[in-house]
Design brief:
Elements: E1 3-9, H1 13-21, E2 26-32, H2 39-47, H3 54-63, H4 68-75, H5 90-102, H6 105-115, E3 121-124, E4 130-136, E5 141-143, H7 145-151, E6 155-162, H8 177-184, E7 188-191, H9 196-204, H10 209-215, E8 219-223, E9 227-229, H11 238-249, E10 256-260, E11 277-280, H12 285-290, E12 294-298, E13 301-304, E14 307-310, H13 312-324
Parallel strand pairs: 1-2, 1-7, 2-3, 7-8, 8-10, 10-12
Antiparallel strand pairs: 4-5, 4-6, 9-11, 13-14
Helix pairs in contact: 1-3, 1-13, 5-6, 8-10
Subcellular location: Cytoplasm
InterPro entries: CofD, CofD-like_dom_sf, Gluconeogen_factor
Keywords: Cytoplasm
Length: 326
């Protein structure tokens, strides 16, 4: 029986690892945040009151074996001068339509997964849109993922609250049961890669998810980012990233940290083009080990498009090697 790997995150980092992993003999599940409130996802969550579809769309495409022309259509984003449809991706509109047609986001995703011939499962961390909140290290409170990212401020912690249109003030946020079951039955949990405070932690802090991550017998792996994020994680080492994750989980659950050992050439990265990144993440093996995790320092670097990214194939190979160590 294939090993069950659950990946937790959002944004553009997760698909990089998902794409090569779906080609391996594993049972792959992606759990994605529902707190995105920027761009097409933000507009749709406000107008149609659905979970933001962007991260789900990107993971579906990464897992798909459908014809590339269909995937290109699914990912097509209308031009900004197309006033009514400006910024919307076709796939986001399809997720919104199917959610409205079926009345259930899980059923909508399952239908699209069938159309796109995906190899794996995609679960939103909750079945309702959530609002991400953050407190800066100076005590200021920020509201909304887009605003948090744009603020470029050092953050202390994040949490989620119900969407503004929830009338019942006592409304309790509930984790998607499918996501909880996947975590509890997994052989391996993988966090990231992705923005620590706005892609990974918005999943971790959802009530029910945190408890499942504390209880699962799965091996847990954190993929450290290659570059820090401006303001939020400036000068963070890989150990400091892990410490923040542990603090939000309220338990040291991570068994292994994959960290890039290859230096990013100083003159390669276009910092103006990649405006959210700051500097290369520093390695701190001793700090990681003090948090109870083992360090796997490798060459995971892929230089492209004037930026520094993870080499998905190399990361996937390392994850499978870690599974073999059990």
């Amino acid at each position: 029986m294939p090993a069950k790997i659950v990946m937790i995150g959002g944004g553009s980092g997760l698909p990089v690892i998902v794409k090569p992993l779906v080609k391996k003999d594993v049972d792959l599940t992606a759990i994605v945040t529902v707190a995105d409130d920027g761009g097409s996802s933000g507009l749709l969550r406000n107008y149609v009151n659905i979970i933001p579809p962007g991260d789900i769309r990107n993971i579906l495409v990464a897992m798909s074996s459908a014809d590339q022309s269909l995937l290109d259509l699914f990912q097509y984003r209308f031009k900004t001068n197309d006033d009514f449809l400006a910024k919307h991706a076709v796939g986001n509109l399809l997720i919104a339509a199917l959610t409205e047609m079926t009345g259930d986001v899980s059923e909508a995703i399952a239908k699209l997964a069938d159309y796109l011939k995906i190899n794996g499962q995609v679960y939103p961390v909750a079945k309702e849109p959530l609002i991400l909140k953050a407190q800066t290290t100076k005590g200021e409170e920020l509201t909304g993922e887009a605003a948090i990212t744009a603020a470029h401020q050092a953050l202390d912690h994040v949490w989620v609250v119900p969407n503004d249109d929830v009338v019942d003030q006592d409304h309790a946020i509930e984790a998607n049961p499918e996501a909880v079951d996947a975590i509890l039955s997994a052989d391996m949990i993988v966090y990231g890669p992705g923005s620590l405070f706005t892609s990974i932690l918005p999943n971790v802090v959802v009530p029910g998810i945190k408890e499942a991550l504390q209880a699962t017998p799965a091996k847990q792996v954190y993929i450290s980012n290659i570059m820090t994020q401006k303001g939020e994680t400036d000068a963070y080492s890989d150990a400091e990233h892990l410490a923040v994750l542990d603090r939000h989980l309220e338990k040291n659950v991570v068994d292994a940290v994959l960290t890039n050992q290859t230096e990013v050439p100083e003159d390669f990265v276009d910092y103006q083009r990649w405006g959210e990144i700051s500097t290369q993440v520093k390695q701190d093996e001793e700090g990681i080990e003090k948090l109870g995790a083992k360090v796997y320092s490798r060459d995971f670097l892929l230089l492209r498009d004037a930026g520094a990214f993870h080499d998905g194939e190399k990361v996937a190979k390392e994850l499978l090697a870690l599974l073999g160590d059990d």
